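Please, is this right?
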Amino acid sequence: MSDQLANARFAQEAVVEPDHIARARAHALELGAEPVSPAVGAQCAVIAAATAAANIVEIGSGAGVSGLWLLHGAPRAVLTTIDTEPEHLAAARQAFHDAKVPPARARFIRGRAADVLPRMNEASYDIVLVDADPESVIEYVEHGLRLVRPGGTVLVPRVLHGGRVADPVQRDAVTTAYRSLIQETQNSPAVVGALSTVDDGLLQLTTVVDPR
């Protein structure tokens, strides 16, 4: 095993997932909801904690796993989760209930993000997590950057797309969209961006605050 693979495995296995999130993960996997990995969830929790996030939006509920990780980092935040699948939202609601998340701290919206996001208030959120409809990732990130306050953060897990983004031979629509998103945001003066390679990747974009 190469050093790089050994480091990646160690980083993944080093994460201790809280019991209530592990239970939510098991249910999510039963539903085929594909939740974020523990390593990515832990990074999201750190960002939520470091930014003292108070208002969070997630696109794609992951049956509650990603939301619980975000609230693990920012337990006083209010989380809005958007998903097209009623079964996934129901699982998220149950997971939050089991984790004793107060009902006032979680809002569940069933619908297509493309329809819901334009109706949400600009510059009103601290974090937007984009984890749904990879073919629409660029559109959703654009909405996310509009929704976060100055200095707010947009998080995009799975951005390495199973290693396809790093392979120049791969040119399918989803891979190309992720690759373009990474390249364009790294070159943008409007955001500070970082790409974590843990698990299947986590793109972190923080909007630049106008110094004036």
Remarks:
- The chain has eight helices and seven strands.
- Residues 3-207 form a domain with the Rossmann fold fold (CATH 3.40.50.150).
- The first strand starts at residue 55 and ends at 59.
